[in-house]
Structures are given as C-alpha cells and as structure tokens.
Design a protein that fits this description.
The chain has a single domain (5-175), classed as FAD/NAD(P)-binding domain (3-Layer(bba) Sandwich). Helices cover 39% and strands 13% of the residues. The protein has five helices and five strands, in the order H-H-E-E-E-H-E-H-E-H.
Amino acid sequence: MTRGCIPTKALVRAAEIAHDARRANEFGIRVGSVEVDFEAVMARVRQVIDDGIAFYEHMIERDQGTTLFRCHARVVGEHEIDCGGETVEFDNLLIATGARPRIPDLPGLDGVPFATSDDLLQATELPGHLVCIGAGAVALEFAQAYRRFGAEVTIVLRGRRIARGEDAELAELLQR
C-alpha cells in the first residue's frame, strides 16, 4: 500500500488530470492556465495511501477468519512462527513482505543526491529536471507524471528498448 501500484496510480491520475486540463481547449472547453500545486498533489497521494491502509486494516479486522499481528516474526518450527512471544501455527507460510527499490551499483552514485521511487512518493517539491535511470514500468510512470506536472525529464537506459519486461509491441509504441 505504501509503495508501488496504489500510490503511483494516484500520482499518475493527478498528472493525467493536469494534462487533460491543458488540452481542454482542443475540445472547445476554455479553462485558462493550469497550475500544479505539487505539494497538494503529494498530500493527496499520501492521503490515498493512508486511506488504503485504513480500508484494508478494517477489512481484516472485520473478517472473522483473519487475524492481524504487528510484529517481527521468526520461524520457530516447521509449521510455527513466533510473533512477539506468541506462537502462531500455520499450514502454509506465504512470505509477502513487499518490495523495496533496488539501488544500483553505479559509479559515482554515492557522491550525489538521488531519490528512489519511494522518495519521490514523499516529495513535496517538483524538481526542475528529473533524470530516471532505468526505463521499466515504475520509471516510465514517474517520468510521465513528473513531465505532465512540468518538470523536464530525461530517461537513461542501458539497452536499446524501453519497457524491456513488457510486450515488444507495447515497448515499440512507447518508444515512439
């Protein structure tokens, strides 16, 4: 909930609205100038995160067959974990702890300020220029959103094709 799909979709949606508002004249709709209050956009993204967490926690608490533990768990037996001193038995153990952005081993990176996708979701100021190292789905979502908010964007990739993990036809379309 705090990273990935939900918050980036809220960010992308705000960028889409700004983009559509700028194009409104093409459809005969007069809307004057469009200004992005980036701090307010990001406050809304954080509110979407908080609302999503509250919603899912409420759903878990409401479900009679689900119990929520907040602890650092450790496996203590073939079908047991210890959760803050309480033993929890299970038939199957699913490890779904989320993903963190990977910081590449890039020469010189340790000497410059940089941000991960997590950091960008906590930003309060729009940078003048965003350089995205990588051209996967997450980088492209941020690149498009930040460009639509008004930042210059540069995408740096190793290979010849953006969105390498996606369908080749889609990647070609995005490349254009």
